[in-house]
Amino acid sequence: MAFHRKVPNSAGHLGSLLEAFLPWLGLVVVVLLVLALLRRSATALVALLLPVATWTHLFGGMLLPGAEPGPHDLVVVQHNVSDENTDPAGTARALADTGPDLIALEELVPPALAVYAQTLAPDYPYRAVRGTVGLWSKYPLTGDRLVDIKPQGIADVWSRGLRTVVHTPHGDIAVYVAHLPSVRVRASGLASSQRDESAGLLGKAIAAEDLKTVLLLGDLNGTVDDRGLTPLTSRMNTAQRGFAFSFPAAFPTARIDQVMARSAAVRQIRTLPRTGSDHLPVTARLTLG
């Protein structure tokens, strides 16, 4: 069990709060290392070997360069475009110009939805939209439907999950696009119960998926280290390379925009330039089969 899993989550979801910023603990180690060097303390340097080794084990691989693109690769873009985005056309063009095979978007609201549809249509003729989430594709889509991931505590109309099948040259893929509930940091800790409940519902839907290869794209309002997303991360592969901190766009500190896969490898993930959203877009390369 990783050391951070020993932090209890019963009181204020403190474990999840720590895990949301887990990679940044490396900066603490750097500060301690500098202090040890300034004090010329051999004991302190030896004591730092364990946290250095632990951080390297957990995150060192994310810094390595990705493998060369292969013939069975699929490139995807995931972006929460923000319901307050004042330039949906510019955002759509920026995403399309990167040339991915699939583009997943969240916080699609009228009339911006019509702008995204019109701008992306020339290069992405196939689309599936349910509620405020959507997928645009270069390949045909079939069987799109709503995925109910609404927590019990939300009474309003709330449609933030969809499932569709993408017919790629390398085989059919079940693609899920989701936007989990937001979390809030309060004096009492991390308020993430609704997010965790929604993640559980999404995890059950993916577990019941008949197609072998599954792709999940979405704003999950949590990092892959956050135990609140265990219903998803326990079933799916996450990125092998890249940190791709995506939120907030002004000063990204965590990647809450995720690309996960079953029966496929997420080789590398990285951010794209800022759009009119408070999130950065992320793009990932997957190897199928």
Could you characterize what this model shows?
The protein is built from 8 helices and 13 strands. By secondary structure, it is α+β, with helices and mostly antiparallel strands. The longest helix has 15 residues, at 25-39. The two termini are 30 Å apart.
Task: Identify the notable features of this structure and list them briefly.
289 residues, alpha+beta, six-stranded mixed beta sheet, 13 strands, 26% helix, globular, five-stranded mixed beta sheet
Explain the layout of strands and helices.
Layout: H1 14-20, H2 25-39, H3 42-47, H4 49-59, E1 73-80, H5 88-96, E2 102-106, H6 112-120, E3 126-130, E4 133-137, E5 141-146, E6 161-168, E7 171-179, E8 184-186, E9 189-191, H7 193-207, E10 214-219, H8 230-233, E11 257-262, E12 264-271, E13 282-288
Parallel strand pairs: 1-2, 7-10
Antiparallel strand pairs: 1-13, 2-4, 3-4, 5-6, 6-7, 8-9, 10-11, 12-13
